[in-house]
Design goal:
The complex is a heterodimer.
Chain A (H helix, E strand, L loop, with lengths): L26 H18 L25 H32 L1 H10 L3 H28 L3 E2 L2 E2 L2 H23 L5
Antiparallel strand pairs in A: 1-2
Helix pairs in contact in A: 2-3, 2-4, 4-5
Chain B lengths: L9 H29 L7 H13 L2 H28 L6 H28 L1
Helix pairs in contact in B: 1-3, 3-4
Classes of the chains: A mainly alpha, B mainly alpha.
C-alpha cells in the first residue's frame, strides 16, 4: 500500500490501475488485465477485492465418461437398450411377413426364435424393454401434468395408467392366443 | 422456402420418438414375452396352433397396417436414441449416417408392409 490517505473504505482507490472495461472482446487487452491483476494479487494478497484474474475452465471429457458414475451408467444403459428393442422390432416384422406367407414360413420363424443366438438377443431385448418401461414410467409424471381444479393429478395415477395399459394388452393377447375367441 | 429458413425439424423427429417410447412402454414387454418365449416354447400350441389363431386376423390389410405403423414408431424411437448416443460417445458422424439410421427406421416398416401385402396376396 502506498501512503495515499483514504478517508472512506468505499472511496476510490488511488492505486487502482485497472484498465477501463473493453467495449469489445480484445484479447490483448484481456491479457493486459490478467497481468495487472496478477501483479496486484502478488503485491497485496487477499482482501484486495480483485476477481478479474482469468482462469478459463476447459472441460475435458473422455470418451468413456458414461462409466464414471451410477447415474451416467443408468442413462447410457437406457439409451443403449433401445437399440436391442429395435432389433426385436425388425425380428417381429420378419415374423409378420412370415405369417402372411403361410404355415411353412411361420413355422420357420417360430423355430428361429429357439436358435441360441436369437434366444440370447431375445432375452436381452426383454431386459431392455422392461428397463424402458420402468424408466419411462418414472419420467412421464414429470411431463404429463393433468390439472384437476387447482391441483395436479398425483404421479401415481400417470404411472398406474401405463401399467394398466400393459396389463390390458397382456390379458387381451393371452386370451386371444389362448383361444378365447376361436 | 423462406418460411422454413432458420427453423428446425427436431420437433417432428422428437414427437415420433416420444410416440414410440409411449407405445413401447406397454407393447414391447408383452410382445417379447409372448413371441420370443411363450409361442416358440409351445405354450399356445406351437406354430400350427398360433397360425390357426392369428393368420386370419393378421392378414387383414388394415390390421397389418396399424401393426406396422406402431412397430415403426418403436423402431424410430430406437433409431433416435441410437443416433444421439453416437454424439454422447463423441462420435460426430457426417449427415449421411443420420440419413441411413433414420432411413432404416422409415424403410424397414415400408418394405416389410409391402412384402407382407405381396405374401398375403399370393399365399
Amino acid at each position: 500500500m502506498t501512503g495515499a490517505p483514504t478517508s472512506s473504505p468505499t472511496g476510490p482507490r488511488p492505486e487502482d490501475t485497472r484498465p477501463a472495461p473493453a467495449r469489445t472482446l480484445d484479447v490483448g487487452r484481456l491479457a493486459q488485465a490478467d497481468r495487472v491483476a496478477r501483479r496486484r494479487e502478488e503485491g497485496t494478497g487477499a482482501g484486495d477485492g480483485t476477481v478479474s484474474q482469468r482462469n478459463p475452465y476447459r472441460p475435458t471429457m473422455k470418451r468413456t465418461w458414461f462409466l464414471a458414475t451410477k447415474e451416467y451408467r443408468a442413462y447410457f444403459l437406457r439409451e443403449g437398450a433401445a437399440v436391442v428393442v429395435g432389433l426385436f422390432v425388425l425380428n417381429l416384422m420378419l415374423g409378420m411377413v412370415s405369417i402372411a406367407a403361410g404355415l411353412d414360413s411361420w413355422t420357420w420363424w417360430v423355430d428361429l426364435q429357439r436358435n441360441p443366438f436369437v434366444l440370447v438377443l431375445n432375452v436381452l431385448a426383454l431386459a431392455a424393454a422392461v428397463l424402458h418401461t420402468v424408466s419411462w414410467d418414472q419420467l412421464t409424471p414429470s411431463i404429463i401434468k393433468v390439472q384437476r381444479g387447482t391441483r395436479f393429478l398425483a404421479d401415481g395415477w400417470i404411472i398406474a395408467q401405463q401399467v394398466l395399459l400393459l396389463v390390458i394388452f397382456a390379458a387381451v393377447m393371452v386370451a386371444w392366443l389362448g383361444g378365447a375367441w376361436s | 422456402m423462406r418460411r422454413w429458413a432458420g427453423r428446425t425439424n427436431e420437433p417432428l423427429f422428437w414427437g415420433l420418438f416420444g410416440g414410440g417410447g409411449m407405445v413401447s412402454v406397454f407393447l414391447m414387454p408383452v410382445l417379447i414375452v409372448i413371441f420370443a418365449f411363450l409361442v416358440p416354447f409351445g405354450v399356445f400350441g406351437g406354430a400350427e396352433g398360433t397360425y390357426e389363431t392369428m393368420h386370419g386376423v393378421l392378414t387383414n390389410w388394415f390390421v397389418a397396417l396399424v401393426l406396422f405403423v406402431v412397430l415403426a414408431l418403436v423402431l424410430w424411437h430406437a433409431a433416435h436414441r441410437f443416433f444421439h448416443s453416437l454424439h454422447d460417445l463423441k462420435i460426430h458422424p457426417p449427415e449421411i449416417v443420420r440419413v441411413v439410421i433414420y432411413g432404416v427406421a422409415l424403410l424397414a416398416p415400408a418394405i416389410g408392409y409391402s412384402l407382407f401385402l405381396v405374401e398375403a396376396a399370393t399365399s
